[in-house]
Amino acid sequence: MTDCLGLSDHVSVVTGGAGLIGSSISRGLADCGATVVIADPSDAGSELADQLGDHVHHIDTDVTDPNAVELLFETTVKEFGRIDSLVNAAYPRNDQYGAKFEDVTFEGWNENVSLHLGSYFYTSKCAALKMQSQPEGGSIVNFGSIYGIEAPDFTVYDGTSMTSPVEYSAIKAGVINLTRYLASYLGSDGVRANTISPGGVFDDQNEQFVRQYEDQTPMGRMAMPEDIVGPVLFLVSDLSTFVTGQDIAVDGGWTIS
Ligand SMILES: NC(=O)c1ccc[n+]([C@@H]2O[C@H](COP(=O)([O-])OP(=O)(O)OC[C@H]3O[C@@H](n4cnc5c(N)ncnc54)[C@H](O)[C@@H]3O)[C@@H](O)[C@H]2O)c1
């Protein structure tokens, strides 16, 4: 364990902390000595907490349930004394999510927007209320996406059954501007809020898709989960004490071309 960034007294809640990106973030925070609460309903959450050591804890949480969210932050402050950062890396969606544009229903759209954008709002709100009452404030990091910044490039899905869901573009653009709102509203209380917008993360996707995606990316590859960790550590730590309301694209240059 290395206190590389002054995080040894830091308490962080990571929603979706057992996922593809979230598990790397939980590990990165734990490596820097932070107390980490993995807020994730999957069994992988408790397995990861066991693996990462005594200062990593799993709280089985469905972030789309407001009562569970309130309990998450009550428990965190009760057990660990404070909350310095919230990292929202959960990816809640219903079973219709991922349908092509023509097949998305009004109800399906509403539910997915509510599950994802709604839970990012409510976790941010509940964390902010705790952080406002601490002299040191706190830091909120929400996960956006390159598709919250610009329109999808559908040519990368040519020849595959994959698509970029229409809800995703609305949700992620919403997350980026929700985060700006939080930064503006909470800035005077010392609570910072920023977005990280990753490009596509490699997860053994269809080979044709990967090739086509890489061809569109200045750095010539998809992101690896580990690429996302450094910017998160920067945003939760005192390296970024005057950075708020920003969206950092971690995309190998995708959004500049
Ligand atoms: N993977 C990518 O290519 C990519 C690219 C850009 C942005 N993102 C964003 O990064 C974030 C993480 O994505 P990921 O790829 O790691 O997703 P993932 O599906 O691998 O992991 C998501 C995690 O969220 C958890 N989760 C799902 N529903 C939940 C709920 N109701 N309550 C609490 N936790 C819940 C899951 O158990 C899982 O551990 C998301 O916001 C996603 O939109 C991902």
From TrEMBL:
Q: Which residues form a coiled coil?
A: none
Q: Name one Pfam family in it.
A: adh_short_C2
Keywords, alphabetical: Oxidoreductase
InterPro entries for the chain:
NAD(P)-bd_dom_sf, SDR_fam
The family line of this record is:
Belongs to the short-chain dehydrogenases/reductases (SDR) family.
Report the protein name in the record: SDR family oxidoreductase
Organism the protein comes from: Haloferax larsenii
